[in-house]
Amino acid sequence: MQNLTQDQIRRSFINASRSEVKAINFPAGFETTDWENLDYLGWRDPKMPQRGYLIYPGQDGPVGLFLRAPEGGSGKLRKVLCDLCRDVRCEVVVYLYVARRTGPAGRNGNTVGTLICADFHCSRNVRFEVPSKAEHLDWPSIRQRQIDGLRERTELFISRVRG
Ligand SMILES: [Zn+2]
C-alpha cells in the first residue's frame, strides 16, 4: 500500500469518535513501516492494548477501522484461523476484534466482529517463504492468490462495518 502520514490515518476512520481518534497512539517505529509489503496497516495501541486500528487502502482513499479486542484478552493461543489471512501454517494468536458500525446502527450500539491476528501480521503471513520441499510449485501465483484473498476479505469486513 502507499505511504500514509499520521494525519491521513487520523482522518481515515469511519467508525471512531473524535475523542477516540485524538487518543490514538502510533506504534514505535512507525517511520520505518514497510508499506510496500502491507495490504493493510494494523496495530494495537501501545498504551491501550484493548484498542486496535486497521487502515485499508480503499479505492477512494484510506479507510480506517477502530477495533476493540475482548476485555481481558490475554492472547491465549487458540486453534482458530484469522478471518482475514486464513493463515494455516503457523499458530498465531487470534482475537475476536469488534468494530462499531457506522451511522445510526453504530449509534444504537450495533457492532460486527471478526477474528484477526492479534498483532495484525496478516500481510506478513500471506507472504510466507517457499517451503523447500515444494519448490516445483508456482509460488508467485500461490502467493498472489493469498494476497488477493486477504484484500477481498478485508474489504468484505469493511463493508459489514458500513452495513
Ligand atoms: Zn491474519
From TrEMBL:
Can you give the residue ranges of the Elongation factor G-binding protein C-terminal treble-clef zinc-finger domain? 8-161
Question: What is the source species?
Answer: Psychromicrobium lacuslunae
User: Per its UniProt entry, which superkingdom is the organism in?
Assistant: Bacteria
- Pfam families in the cross-refs: FBP_C
List the InterPro entries hit by this protein, alphabetically: EF-G-binding_C
Q: What is this protein called?
A: Elongation factor G-binding protein C-terminal treble-clef zinc-finger domain-containing protein
